[in-house]
Write a structure and sequence with these properties.
This protein has 254 residues and is mainly β. The chain has one domain: outer membrane lipoprotein receptor (LolB), chain A. It contains 4 helices and 12 strands. It has a 12-stranded mixed beta sheet with strand order 7-8-9-10-11-1-2-3-4-5-6-12. Strand 4 and strand 5 form a beta hairpin. It is globular and about 55 Å long. The chain starts with 32 loop residues before the first helix and ends with a strand. 44% of the residues are buried.
Amino acid sequence: MPLTGLPAPHPAQFDAGPYTESVILRMPHVWRARGLVALALWACAAGPLAQTSAPPPAVATPAADEVARRVQARYDTVGDFEGQFTQTYEGGVLRTKTTERGTVVIKRPGRMRWVYTSPERKEFVSNGVKVYAYFPADRQVLVSNAPTGADTTPALFLTGQANLARDFVASAMAVPGAAPGLLGLKLVARKPDPDFEWLAIAVDPVTFQIRQLVALDRQGGRSSFTFTNLKENQRPPDTLFEFRIPKGVDVVPQ
């Protein structure tokens, strides 16, 4: 989280940021590349989101700060995860609503491979040093540095240098679309983030697994990630996160 870039009659460029920007607009079904990468990185850092299941049993509701602490503790034990995802995006500059699907493999710290397969193929890959955003239909690869200690708080969380409880202000929230019985948490970075107003998670009150990730970007767009068929600690090889730039594509440094 989580988390597109589209062709339009005329490509549009956005201001470059610390680790990814520049978008090709392609019909109203794509999100801007920087926002997608930032959310994907944050979701990578947050750890696996639990797949949908029956509502959890009723338990006493802990304070928001305590929920954040327990979620952090839960995902400190997860080294990697993989599965399938569905991303929905609504609003933003183009006032669109889209649904995309694909597969994801995450290995902390900093490695990720998101492959969108429907309705259009694209890839977001990071080896922990560089981030590659590949849009085959445009024959273009955006290349940027992976987040460092000088970047935004969500990026720090990705690299293991930040902490969910320490670096975000947490408050209770009814997360849009969350299943009944889940605990909702709104997260605002203590250090202002250039991409997102806030992030929200819905967590199981017993296991503190994340069931849903939602984000509001600064263009007014809302993205939501749900995950299925998740597997944890499978130890994927580091070579899976090395991106080979295809021949004949434009490489755009960020």
